[in-house]
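Memo subject: From amino acid sequence to discrete backbone structure tokens
Action wanted: Derive the backbone structure tokens from the amino acid sequence.
How to read it: Take the token row as a discrete description of the fold.
Attached in line: The record itself begins immediately under this heading.
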Amino acid sequence: MKKLLSIFSLFTLIFTGCDVNINDFESDKIAPNPPNNVYSVTGDNKIYLYWDDNRESDLAGYNVYFSYTYDGTYYYIGNTTRNSFIDYDAKNGSTYYYAITAYDRNGNESELSIEEVFDTPRPEGFNQSIFEYNEFPNSSGYSFKNYLVVPYNSNDADFFFEKYNNKFYLDVWKDSDIQDMGKTSDIYDISYAPLNGYVPINEGENIKYTEAVVGHTYVIWTWDNHFAKVRIKNITNERIVFDWAYQTAEGNRELKRAFDDFRNNMQNIKVERN
């Protein structure tokens, strides 16, 4: 059960900017209902929270709480009169659980919202370019953990760009995985990385690849067990432009087996394609 560390007091009423009738304090002892349909959207060193509006006529606002576990103690972090809140104190790579309460003009506060809402903020980038690896090998790969363009055969390369038989591809090495999640409106449309459905490796090849399409978002499961997503914004014969987001917290649902010796001599490796 969630535990509320209640520091909700008269200062909340003061900041609502509402007139309070002393008779209402004596007559109204009914708290609002807990907010419903609370959910989060992951940001870069921040987390966006949303919920449905309460319908009570005497509603004054909402309090926002966080915890480090779902059933742990929840600590007050702020209040709002809107049905949204941004936690700017969240740090990339740390997981936070959230709950919302509603309060009325008489100081009655609801129970915590019941949804299990947790999120782990992560870094993101926009309008990044990499180049086709045959023509520009030293600028063809990208390293999420370093936020850096790298050679396609760098130890840190998480994916690279390829033109092959007049088609464009996103490639990962055989110790990583990639999946096309389809057309999206922006990088935020894909909230969670899947655990299956990734591109298989073909016999005799050392890369996995999927066709690069403008407007599509791709999930990459990196060789060191992190998840990332890439949305392509533009493709030319020489380069792609993309937005990206990378989860710095190592995946904790399943451990991915790595090819332990595969990256020991990357500088001398060549792409093997049938």
User: Anything to note?
Assistant: Confidence is low (pLDDT under 50) at residues 6-18, 252-260. The chain has two domains: 3-119, 124-268. The first strand starts at residue 3 and ends at 5. The helical segments are 10-16, 22-27.
